[in-house]
Amino acid sequence: MGYVLGAIPVVAAVAFPGLLWTAVVAAAVKGGSSPGGVLVVVAVGCGLFAAGAPLVAMPLAKLERWRLRLVDPRPISSGHRALAATGAWRRLGARYREPATWREVAYAVLLATAGPVAHALVFGIAFVLLMMLISPLLTIGTTEPVAIFLGTATTFGEALWYALPALAALPVVPLLLGLLAAGHAALARALLHDGRERLRTELVEVSRSRARLVDAFEVERRRIERDLHDGAQQRLVGLTLKLGLARLDVPADSAAHQNVSAAHDEAKQLMAELRELVRGIHPRVLTDRGLPAALGELSDRCPVPVALHAGLPDRFPAHVEATAYFVVAEALTNIVKHSAATAVSVTVRQDAGVLAVEVADDGRGGADPARGTGLTGLADRVAVIDGKMLLSSPVGGPTLLRVELPCPVPSE
Length: 412
Fold this sequence. Notes:
single chain, two-stranded antiparallel ribbon, 7 strands, EC 2.7.13.3, 5-stranded mixed beta sheet, alpha+beta, elongated
């Protein structure tokens, strides 16, 4: 009830300028003004409305959001952004360019036009029912006919026939007031609340959470690489050396020499596999010397000749360098396994806040992520840091893989 009653002065305030303008136009028409003069009045009114409506609508919307909490406790966001501009005119211009401002203007227009009609209808019905209800009291002590709604009553008994239906219909009044309040609140939430603000907040939180996961993942990879390199790999090197020394102490023609030699060879092979495993988890050269050196080492190990162009002057965030490295590593692996290429070109450059990685080969082409060649996982890895992956691989070749990784600020 308080929400509905509180709307009456608000509706009256916003409806008054419209009524005044309508009266001016009506006076111009009635006064015999020419059509051109009337059009001038209308045009001037429209111009004043377009210029001044936001100045009225914005504080009105702020008041209405506060009043909406009386019936709807859910959070409500205006959709207005924080103003970075300085100066009153610039700040006002920024507000005029926001969609939220014009939603508030639309709300003010609806409140000024439909609001008086809805309130007059509901309170008119309530007034008629009230007059019908008290009509028997109005007939006491007088012989004059009493006007009641669509008829008149002279006696108490006649007026009672109006009072009884009014008494039966009286519960409709709270229902109408509730519907009026609900409609007003629904209109306010529809036009004055920016539901996208919650989505933007959730997206920002998801992005931050994803960034934290990426950082935690990289930290864990480095820990595993360090533990393997400084622990298991060093112990395996020591074991290999001991087996080599033991082989020298055993007679060459004995069965023990063959067993020790086999164990030594197995240890060397295991050490090579462990070194590749450590390099695949997180290459030490990437941390120590940066992306160009790591890609150079990767290119040197590739069976297919690789032309590397990676003259990067800066170091980049660790997760960006790691992603770029593994993009090239996975691409070279796919080329060796599937493309039958004879030459590969790898280009890495920084351009407008983006680290672009391109891997091109002259192979047979036809690369398809659906065939399980690792491209889907590669795309997922790139997407984790908000990057983009583009693939051109027509049947018959050539194939071009381009990855763009956001990297606005190189690390020192």
